[in-house]
Amino acid sequence: MAFSRLLAMFDDWRRAPEQQTNPCKRRMNLLAHSMGNRTLISTFTHWHQHAGLDTMPQWFRHIFMIAADVDNQALEPHQSGRAVLDAAKQVHIYYAADDIAMAASKVVNVRHRTVTRRLGMTGPENLDALPANKVTVTDCDAFNDHFDPSWAIPTFSPTTTTTQAH
Fold it and tell me: pTM here?
């Protein structure tokens, strides 16, 4: 909730009389990676509910959701992440089906009785439910291993063993 308190302080500053006469016109962008997207969604939801507003203010020019470890329906109408779409002029989602961490997250979330596809692994469940003029989606699967082939999934032969002499 610390991030939510930070947003409240920012909003107080933004609404201060001196800001009204000489407002700050700098553009802000936000990048959230993996579980940081959970923090982003819960913060915006919490702040939005406690501020008593119908929608989240559009404070950010761009929000980048990279390998988002959240439900792939999170940004759809009536879902917890919808405030993210309100908070930015443009939301960019980057995902990759071969992201090993996303597969591990899906398994770990079974413990919490949550079995959902992850936004960072599949992209949005229903792209038509998101505003086309506001959301861009990039599938990184085709090129993400080209830049660092050492991250490719290793293959092991069961007959190969390695021993090291001491």
Answer: 0.79
Please report where in the chains the tokens 């390695």 appear, as a residue: 162
For residues 3, 6, 7, 12, the Cα torsion angle rounded to the nearest 10 degrees is 160
Chain-centroid distance of CA 79 in Å reads 14
Burial of 16 from C-beta contacts in 10 A (0-12 / 13-18 / 19+):
exposed
Residue at 72: amino acid letter: N
pLDDT tens figures, 52-77: 777 788 889 999 999 999 989 999 99
The residue to which tokens 């969604």 are assigned: 41
Cβ-based neighbours of 89, under 8 Å, separated by 6 or more: 58, 60, 61, 62, 134
Question: Using CA atoms, how far apart are residues 23 and 60, in angstroms rounded to an integer?
Answer: 15
Which candidate, 113, 126, 116, 96, places its Cα nearest to that of 34? 96
- pLDDT of res. 153: 54
Burial of 139 (0-12, 13-18, 19+ CB in 10 A): middle
Q: What's the distance, Cα to Cα, between the start and end of the chain in Å?
A: 52
